[in-house]
Amino acid sequence: MGVITTAVIAIAGVILGWITIEMACKPCLEKGREAIDQNLNPDYDPDDDIRSPLNANPTEQSDSTSATAIKIV
User: Where is the composition biased (Polar residues) (predicted)?
Assistant: First the structure.
């Protein structure tokens, strides 16, 4: 009977430890799992994550963006 009790206590300890780690490291684990899911997904394209181009209108220039030399004294 002592062996069964010890086994049950050990299993309960492992389960509670696992739950504690899951709760304590939740943000890190979620990012890691998301990265693994993206890596294993053959339809995932990293270029789709780009939200906006650096220069949305390359042909349109304004006076405020033109290059001007400024002398600092």
Answer: 54-73
Distance CA 37, CA 41 (A): 6
**What is the tens place of the pLDDT at every residue in 32-64?**
999 898 888 888 777 776 665 666 565 655 555
Sign of CA dihedral 46, 47, 53, 56: negative
Q: What is the pTM of this model?
A: 0.48
Q: Which domain holds residue 6?
A: 1-35
pLDDT digits (tens, 9 = 90+) for 20-31: 999 999 999 999
CA distance 15 to 19: 6
Helix ranges restricted to H, 1-73: 2-24, 26-40
Angle between the N-to-C axes of helices 26-40 and 2-24, in degrees from 0 to 180, rounded to the nearest 10: 80
